[in-house]
Amino acid sequence: MSGRTPNQKAWWLVLPVVVLVAFNAVIPLMTVVNYSVQETFGDNQFFFEGVTWFEQILHSSRFHDALQRQLLFTAIILAIEIPLGVAIALAMPKRGAWASVCLVLMAMPLLIPWNVVGAMWNIFALPDIGLLGHSLNALGFDYNFTRQPFSAWSTLIAMDVWHWTSLVVLLAYAGLSSIPDAFYQAAKIDGASAWAVFRYIQLPKMKRVLMIAVLLRFMDSFMIYTEAIVLTGGGPGNATSLLSIDLVKIALGQFDLGPAAAMSLIYFLIILLLSWVFYAVMTRDEAH
Q1: Which of 43, 75, 110, 130 is 20 to 30 A away from residue 224, measured at CA?
Q2: How high is the mean pLDDT of the chain?
Q3: Whether residue 149 has pLDDT greater than 90
Q4: DSSP code of residue 4
């Protein structure tokens, strides 16, 4: 064993990152925790409430309804975007100029700001003048996302699928591109079917990138706010009031800082717990 003293100077390079994370994450989190156990009536006067706000949120039917809508939205998004993204990645060319063209086209929706995406789809889906809304009504469908909950949900899901399926495609394509040609040559010699190639070669090689895709899309869809608030505003009524929208209504609309802080912590813990469950389920085979 070497008798040299380890050089600890590298920690100074990490220090700016630690300070930045503390400033952008830890300090705001402590502020939220502080608000979650207090009540304020203005004039910078605070009164300790303990866990009152947490009990109120957990027993609130409004919170339960928003959570159910959020879970339904996330489940639908994952059920559509993951298989669709993999299917598109499998259909894309692996080499040549067309491969570059497809990659650029897939990346374009991800470059559009979230508020612009919501505004685009809001105009696109207007029942009177929007291309999508006017076309659906002209074909005989009764479509009005500003008044009909089903239409609002359909439009919200279509918008998210259009915006974020590209992320799954790019990740799945990266996993497919890392598979050596020797695997395909061996499968061809053995006379393997296309389904067998996908099941035993492509899918196992994409497992890690698909795990990243599922986690990213779960967290993003569970925290969706900008696109949804611009498109539907949580309406009609409360039909599309997801957790994030309901949280903002409580915090800014009603200015109930205590309940809003408690709800945000519960929201954070739900995302953390479900993300851990997803990760544990997808990596349980690797532990053996």
Answers
A1: 130
A2: 89
A3: yes
A4: P
d(CA 14, CA 157): 41
Task: Give, in order, the Cα–Cα distances in Å from 229 to each of 27, 165, 195, 226.
Answer: 27, 20, 41, 5
- Hey, which residues does 40 pair with through a beta bridge? 46
Predicted structure pTM score: 0.87
Domains of the chain (ranges, CATH numbers): 65-242 (1.10.3720.10)
| Residue owning tokens 């700016």 | 16
Task: Return the H-helix or E-strand segment holding 101.
Answer: helix 97-111
pLDDT at 94 over 90: no
Per-residue tokens: 122: 């809001």
Hey, is 48 helix, strand or coil? Answer: strand
- Looking at residue 29, its amino acid is L
135-146 tens-digit pLDDT: 999 999 999 999
Residue 48: what are its φ and ψ, rounded to 5°? -70, 130
- Look up residue 45 and give its amino acid: Q
